[in-house]
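Collaborator request, handled under Task 6.
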Amino acid sequence: MASNLCAVGTDKRERQKANRQARLAELERAHKAEKRRSRLGLFAIIGAFVLGLLLLVRFAGNDDETVTEDPGLDPEAITTTVPEVETVEITVPAPGGSLTGETPCPEADGSSERITSFESAPPVCIDTSKSYTAQISTTKGDYTIELDPEAAPETVNNFVVLARYRYYDGVAFHRILPGFVVQGGDAVGPSPGIGNPGYELTDELPAVIPGSDKFYQNGSVAMANSGPNTSGSQFFVVTGESGEDLPPQYSRFGQVVDGMDVVMDIEAVGSPSGSPTEEVIINSITITES
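Structure tokens returned to the collaborator:
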């Protein structure tokens, strides 16, 4: 009898153990199912988010014209999708002489030999207590820049020295973007917009123009660059709102005070890509000191 009771007790314990294991297995299956539902819900949220981003990019890319501005003004830094226009090939003029070693100051009357290659930046050749203007003679007419040696003494000195060495003679405006800038000043290439005189300048970045919240205005003259402290000889004139909105990353060293109509005539032969539809040449630059 005792033996039968023991067997019954043993069977009961086995059934209880089996029931517990079944419940544990059921709980485990329920837990795994819940984890799968959570993952599926998360994947659904991520998928919806990614789809939304793709649709946003697609519709944002449907504009007729896309412009990216970092006119690191290298301002070669503007890229744009534009209709095709007939442009002309801009040629680099024959190079002038070269100077090795220290650069001497040129003759103030502009009678020095034309030089387009320098081993070193020029010494101080201007008197910052005096006033300087630059008359730019072009194939479209003349305009005059009032230089600002107080705000940008090194940049003005560099521009005066290059002009007196006739660096800019025969050089084209290679980049003309209506409503933005007219740019020139590359005398050496190898293709227009790539060359420099053989050295780079330290930036002299502008302050806000009094009475405004901008650093440039229509007619402002500044140095083009391809990044901090990389300007050399290329300069641009601001000709519209896009140029006025540039960040203070380009050394502003002058202002057009006469002949802005000539600058706008030059701008008129530009194109949305920046390639001129007509070649405009700098005949000479005459510096006046007073």
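The cover message to the collaborator said: "Confidence is low (pLDDT under 50) at residues 1-10, 40-72, 75-80. The helical segments are 2-60, 153-164, 241-244, 260-267. Please let us know whether this matches your experimental observations."
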